[in-house]
Amino acid sequence: xxxxxxxTLIELLVVIAIIGVLASIxxxxxxxxxxxxRDAVIRAEIxxxxxxxxxFYYEYGDYDQLCDEPEFVxxxxxxxxxxxxxxxxVCGDGANGFCISSTLNMGGxxxxxxxxxxxxxxxxxxxxxxxxx
Length: 133
Hints:
Layout: H1 9-60, H2 77-84, E1 89-94, E2 97-103, E3 109-113, E4 118-120
Antiparallel strand pairs: 1-2, 2-3, 3-4
């Protein structure tokens, strides 16, 4: 009787195939986790921008020209944080309110206005919006 030493080629190929399938599942889930983390950053920035808008209101008495503040234009801190994480930034203001929103990486959008809470699934349409739709 022959004594068997080691593994056959078929056994090794099966193990390599299983490892490949498991690796592809892990890599796919890591991509989703990254997009979820980026969406969390976008939500936090929109929430922070809403709080900055309230400070603006207490300093100037209205929200007019809020979107012209340095952090909301050009390469400002709010825009940079949102666009670096894959979102698109929209800001609208008026004397009686503001609307700040972004799209999200996992689909959907988030919006904040003077009410002070984040609203999922809506986005400001432009500079004249003063509340989340």
